Amino acid sequence: MSIITIDLKILEMYRDLEITINKLDEATYNFAPPEYYWSVEVCKEHIINLLEKYKSNEISHADVVTWANFILFSEWYRYCEKYQDKIGYILDKLEEIDEKGKELTPKKVEIFLSFLRDELDLEELKANK
User: Fold this and answer.
1) What's the CA gap between 24 and 105, in Å, rounded?
2) Are 99 and 105 in contact (CB under 8 A)?
3) Rounded distance, CA 109 to CA 60, Å?
4) Residue 98 burial (CB count, 10 A)
5) Of 21, 31, 88, 103, which one has the fewest beta carbons inside 10 Å?
6) DSSP per residue over the chain, as a string?
7) Which of 103, 128, 110, 121 is nearest to 55 (CA)?
8) pLDDT, tens digit, for every residue of 69-83?
């Protein structure tokens, strides 16, 4: 089995929700994760985009969970250094929602968005469970 190369553009397209996980799977078949310095950066704007698309019903709960888990556990992505704590926290919460079978409510989405937009700090976020 040979490993093929891939343009990182396809990874950016998935990060930006321009393609589905199925399209990503097709494009990355037999593709080994890149070295860290080749990975695609995920910033808070990408998480905001994810949550806004969910809020407007452009993507499903399953899409959010799949995206969050893929970004969280994939070696193809790294977090923006400036916001890595916020990004990691929100991705962990989205993954936790999935694991515990909880619902991603509109209220939770708004709280996460406020946190990502620097309208809430971590303590305020935790107080708004």
Assistant:
1) 27
2) no
3) 13
4) 17
5) 103
6) -PPPP--THHHHHHHTTSS-HHHHHHHTTTPPPPPGGGSEEE-HHHHHHHHHHHHTTSS-HHHHHHHHHHHHH-TTEEE-GGGHHHHHHHHHHHHHHHHTT----HHHHHHHHHHHTTSS-HHHHHHT-
7) 110
8) 999 988 888 899 999
Report residues of the chain scoring pLDDT below 50: 1-4, 36
127 C-beta neighbours (distance < 10 Å), count: 10
Residue 106 corresponds to which tokens in the numbers above?
């509109």
Q: What are the structure tokens assigned to 58, written together?
A: 């452009």
At a CB cut-off of 8 Å and minimum separation 6, what does 8 contact?
34, 38, 39, 40
**Six token digits for residue 59:** 């993507």
Closest to 103 in 3D by CA, of 75, 53, 70, 61? 61
Q: Which two tokens stand for residue 15?
A: 């990060």
